[in-house]
Amino acid sequence: MSGKRCNRLALCAFGWQAQPLVVAFLAGWMMVLVMTLCASQAGAQSMTFTDIAGRSVKLPHPARRIVLADGHLLTALALLESDPAERVVGWAENLARFDPSTYEQYRRHFPGIADIPLVGGTTADTFSVEKALSLNPDLVVIPLWFGTSTRLETQLTAAGIAVAYVDFFNDPFRNTTASIRILGKAIGQENRAEAYVAFYESHMQRIADRLAGANAPRPKVLLHARAGGWDCCWSAGGSVGEFIEFAGGDNIAKPVVKGATGQLGLEYILSQDPDVYIAAGGADLPGRGGFAVGPGVQQATVQSALEAAAQEPTIGLLSAFAKGRAHALWLFFFHSPTNVLAAEAMAKWFHPDLFADIDPQRTLTEINEKFLAVPMEGTYWADLTPRSAAGPTR
């Protein structure tokens, strides 16, 4: 029952009280009924849920005005709503700064995002609580990598603003589906959230089940993070490394890198001589000397970058290039609930015969058609073509 409807019924009931005594009882009864129905409506819309940090979050109704402390979270909302920016009244600049190609794809569909006020940069200490409060939000969504029980949380909750933590970065392997459910609950889109979770889990389970029944040997894998743009060679430990293990690979960084990322020495890499090499980059990294792959990038551009890597006098010495087992992958999969695509691509690279029927491109098409408000368009993974697989002269 809407608020206006409740008000009309209440006025009607009060009007009856002016009638003769014979209807006074009925008027009183109607007032009780109206107030009960209105209270029930308010109770039905209020919600309590647990965020990814284990905190209880209470909202009087689905959030209508949201501040995103991580701009990348817009892409998660795009799985749940046809207009993911409609509720966003403030956000951080990190999507536009670190993944401008994705930002531009969203801006083309929703030009208004260019006018959403900025509340911070890329870290917790740049977030302006004062600016966020001025936007009158009913919910601030904070990434887990900001840390919990911070100044932000303390000041926002003291001002009566609900705070919810989600995580697609610190531990995406474990927290992706829970975080989607949290966002779905917060905005009243539980059904959409559950539909995506079911899709995600079915695709991940297919990989797990097939590997469990195969007992296949694990190839050694190097995931070269921000390939070409940083000193050699940054790699992935932590949860990103768990995606490698999940897909049936043996992450050579695991014994060395204890955190989310860390630097491997070239001598160590050459001594390990991984069977599979994965260059992880972004669409906008070439301007910083990095590896081009991701939104808006053409297949030919990614191939050129892989060919250049194969000719490097360092990384190009790895036998993975000579064997045609060098690949490219979009780094920001590990900042996104679409990381299932990375899992499928890696499973196919590590065990091509076992996963011959799995097609990550088909999965991407399904995600674009069934879920995303803004389709992912570009080259998000690629394989080194045979003509350039020879590598430099040793």
**CATH architectural group of the largest domain:** 3-Layer(aba) Sandwich
Overall pLDDT metric: 87
Q: In terms of per-residue confidence, which ranges show pLDDT below 50 for 5 or more consecutive residues? A: 1-19, 21-29, 32-43
Percentage of residues assigned to helices? 40-55%
Mind summarizing the main beta sheet? 5 strands, parallel
Q: Please give the domain count.
A: 3
The shape, in one word, is globular
The separation of the N and C termini measures 76 Å
Mind telling me the CATH superfamily name of the largest domain? Nitrogenase molybdenum iron protein domain
What is Rg?
A: 26 Å
- Enumerate how many helices there are, as a single number: 15
Estimate what percentage of residues fall within beta strands.
15-25%
How many E-type strands? 16
For this structure, the quaternary state is single chain
Spatially, the strands of the biggest sheet line up as 5-4-3-6-7
